[in-house]
Specification:
elongated
């Protein structure tokens, strides 16, 4: 009986951690979306940098998880690797916009941020 109970508890804990990860990816995507709107409407480099930094942190955190659509595929699947690759591309784009904002180039940083949309659209189509 002890081994069965331990196996059941392990299964429950693994299931719970998988669900928590999925929610985390979703929450991070909401954070990215909220801050993207702020970034595009920013009227100062400080507001721009704050939004970009929040987006970057959320994207990095999302990389640790697996979207709900991919949970059945498993950690090492090509789809999960591609999802994370998309986030790597996105983080690189954020870094480019952040560098412009750090130089005080608000308009250029906004233009760079507008270029996030095709990346988002491509990966949302695949994994949302």
């Amino acid at each position: 009986m002890g081994k069965k109970m331990m196996a059941l508890m392990a299964a429950v804990l693994l299931s719970a951690s998988t669900l928590a990860t999925a929610a985390s990816v979703s929450d991070n995507m909401e954070t990215i979306a909220e801050n993207y709107g702020k970034v595009l409407k920013a009227d100062s480099t400080d507001v721009m940098k704050e939004g970009l930094q929040a987006m970057r942190a959320a994207a990095q955190d999302a990389q640790k998880g697996i979207p709900t659509k991919l949970i059945s595929k498993g950690e090492g699947s090509a789809e999960v690797k591609d999802f994370r690759h998309g986030l790597d591309l996105f983080i690189g784009q954020i870094d480019g916009a952040l560098a412009l904002a750090n130089q005080g180039k608000l308009d250029e940083a906004k233009k760079a941020a507008q270029d996030f949309k095709p990346t988002r659209d491509t990966y949302h189509k695949k994994y949302r």
